[in-house]
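Moderator note: this is an archived Q&A kept for reference. The question asked for a predicted structure of one protein chain; the sequence and the answer are reproduced below.
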Amino acid sequence: MMIGILPFLKRNFSVKMIPACTAALLSLIILILLLVSSLGYHENSAANVSMPVLTVEALANRSFSQKFENYLLQEFPGYSWSKKSANTLKRLIGEKEIDGIFPLKDKLIQNVSMANPVTGQKNLEAVLNYFSEERTLGANCFFGLIPTASEIYKEELPSAPDVLDQSQFIAQCYERFPSKTVIDISTGLMSRKADQIYYRTDSHWSSLGSYLGYQSVIKALGGTPYSEDMFNIEYASHSFYGSLTDKTFLDYMQPDTIELYHFVNGETITSINKIFGQSQTISSDFYDRNKNNSYAIFLGDECGITQLQTNIANGKKLLLFGDSYSYSMMQFLSLHYEEILLVNLKYLTREQSQLIDVNSYADQAILYSVDEFISDNNISTKLSYFEQ
């Protein structure tokens, strides 16, 4: 029987069938896993991560997919090997995009596409409405969009019809604001694109990238940025594989280095108060040393409100609405303010918003990566918490 099958496969099998066969196999494995899970067949259920609950909020902040991925990894050890094998095969046979990520020769780049233009438009209107409120009329209010690696290195990407032209999108958004209130972050990044301004294996910008962003932000806010030679660099890790590797299991490129910038005149942060739901933590160390091989080394895990107090007695306070890109920038912005309140709308609750007196902040900014701005419904929903 086997002798008869082999000639048939040899005649009819094509390399082009590999991706389809691999995808079918993975789908079957996942289906069996979910069925077994629903029946309660676990060798050691106490040690396993439970199946995540699918909720509207989990879909909105995109946490369900990551939790489901972790669930599969815990429940079925072979899943990670299967996915890595499948994606490695896809890359070797020339697939240009894998799991929404472009596997280039020396780096992974997340594809940013305008999947739902309604979300981006709603967020833009929410920002315009926030700045039009009476409470912000006496404040210096600024809006900035951060281009991702897919924009800065777009000439390296394969041809794909759904890649968003981020420069055009940013320009269209900025047309709705007075020119003096928008922050040009793209120019500074483009000027240093030959340097490592984004991680090779993660969707975030590196510390150098965030430094360049800081230069643009602080200039817009009326300050003078410190030059690069005013910082000593600590190398926290030379083996960082970030979120894009976690998603694709592709680790063929050189790992990333995580750099921490220390001001030569000494650290300025004296207190960091983080509010998680109904709880809070207080510390004085900006860098979370327990996460020295993770992007979370910058201020630790994300939360709704992060309040930074410094020893700079200039009476200046900044209210910054931002996503995870803003966390690494705090190592620079904290050199200019007595207090910074970083608000991550993805995790902010209505109860937490009531703790914020926006009128007490003379400088205010809304700063988001383009990817988050076009996809995160929390921006439009939760900025409305501050309407009078």
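Archived answer notes: Residues 17-39 form the longest helix (23 residues).
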